[in-house]
Amino acid sequence: MHGKAIVITGALGALGKVVATEALARGARVAGIDHAASTLAATADHIELGGVDLTDTAQATAAIDKAAAHFGRLDGLINIAGGFTFEAVGDGDPATWQRMYAMNVMTALNTSRAAIPHLTKSGAGRIINIGALGALQAASGMGPYAASKAGVHRLTESLAAELKGKVTVNAVLPSIIDTAANRAAMPKADISKWVTPKELADVILFLASDAASAVTGALLPVNGRV
């Protein structure tokens, strides 16, 4: 990863922070993009662009272009930004479906489209999306979230075919991630079986590395110790 310029969306979240820390530790240069505000002072190897609404095409494009300009290149895009909801179909709100689609599909679409011109110049461009194991077979209450993450899966496959030979495009499909929010939401769960952010970061950064040059179009389950 040494010297590679990587954009991480959702970089101020529980998973994004770990992926950014691990990428920097491996010698990458990291641009973090997030809807939340950032107070980090920019350095040659690390910048954070806060207050960005990635569901907005213009804002997403401006952020990606700013990151590429800061580093003079772009080698990887890791799309972590997204959202989750638990809501039944029958008595739920149709607006929830639109919100999940915007947060999970459109954020990845907008940043990917903006990054493609930069990544194709890299010679080793990488896009890694975050899908969901629960989108392969949705449980009760998971309809809006699972449908949107299934869209991320199809986006990944389509982009991989479109960019074959130029940029690799893959997705990781985690089960439940061991975060403070998930522990609070599921206090009786057996967290020993959950996947940790560090474990997931290792898989993501493998896909972003030169070692994964032959892997594209993969939907890779990361399901902890089930």
TrEMBL record:
Highest taxon of source: Bacteria
GO annotation terms (biological process): fatty acid elongation
Q: What is this protein called?
A: SDR family NAD(P)-dependent oxidoreductase
Q: Which PANTHER family match?
A: BLL7886 PROTEIN, SHORT-CHAIN DEHYDROGENASES/REDUCTASES FAMILY MEMBER
| A Pfam family assignment | adh_short
User: Which family does the entry's similarity section mention?
Assistant: Belongs to the short-chain dehydrogenases/reductases (SDR) family.
GO MF annotation: an example: oxidoreductase activity, acting on the CH-OH group of donors, NAD or NADP as acceptor
The record's listing under PROSITE patterns reads: ADH_SHORT
